[in-house]
Amino acid sequence: MIIKQFIAGQLENNMYLVADEASQKAVLIDASSNIPELIEAAKDYDVEYILLTHGHFDHIMGLTSLKQALGAEAVICKDDLVISDNINEFTGLFGLPDVVPPTYDKYIKDGDVINVGNLKIKVIHTPGHTEGGVCYLIEDNLFSGDTLFKQSVGRTDLFGGNYEKLVDSINNKIFKLDGNIKVFPGHGDMTTVGYERKVQRI
């Protein structure tokens, strides 16, 4: 498995191109911006899906453009459509111009498994940062969006946020995973489940 990280956007979002080397099939996790280096790297693969961890504007701003550029289908949890559909309520807060809300091709729920080449991508619903927030577990790698960061957790003061749900998601879903699992968050540096379980008190 190949993981390539790209940082883009006003809030320095992480996007991850995750590929199965044998089949050359891949997914893109989150879609902050259509940047040339991502498009260049994606030329080596058949990108089947763009998997959204949640519907906040900074994770979906480049989705419409990237869907077209990559020929990929967009995937999200339905619970975050209300946030995605009202994207301009959030862009305005950051002084960004209005955009046309993106559209989606598939919807996921907790426990779903997405097969891409030899990759089995498990969907873990982790509400709290948003109601429809999800993490994607691929082998021993967890793509956590804005649910869990290195030495921090996602904010819960925006629409759809709920601190009690976030704590439950982290303690009873993420922290139940093997400690050696690497965590690739939506912002900032990589970490591990074991390290965060040790240092965080939530």
Descriptors:
Metallo-beta-lactamase, Chain A; 6-stranded mixed β-sheet
Task: Report on the architecture of this protein.
The strands form three sheets. The chain has a six-stranded mixed β-sheet, covered by helices on one side. The protein has seven helices and 14 strands. The protein starts with a strand and ends with a helix. The chain has 202 residues and is an alpha/beta fold. It has a single domain, classed as Metallo-beta-lactamase, Chain A. The mean pLDDT is 96.
Order of helices and strands: EEEHEHHEHHEEEEEEEHEEH
CATH fold field value:
Metallo-beta-lactamase, Chain A
CATH class label: Alpha Beta
Strand content: 25-35%
Beta-strand segment tally: 14
Distance between the termini: 32 Å
Continuous helix count? 7
Instruction: Identify the CATH homologous superfamily.
Output: Ribonuclease Z/Hydroxyacylglutathione hydrolase-like
- Based on CA inertia axes, which overall geometry fits? globular
Let me know the average pLDDT.
Answer: 96
Write the CATH architecture name: 4-Layer Sandwich
Global structural class: alpha/beta
The largest sheet is: 6 strands, mixed
What percentage of residues falls in helices of 4 or more residues? 10-25%
CA-based gyration radius: 16 Å
Uncertain parts: none
Domain unit count:
1
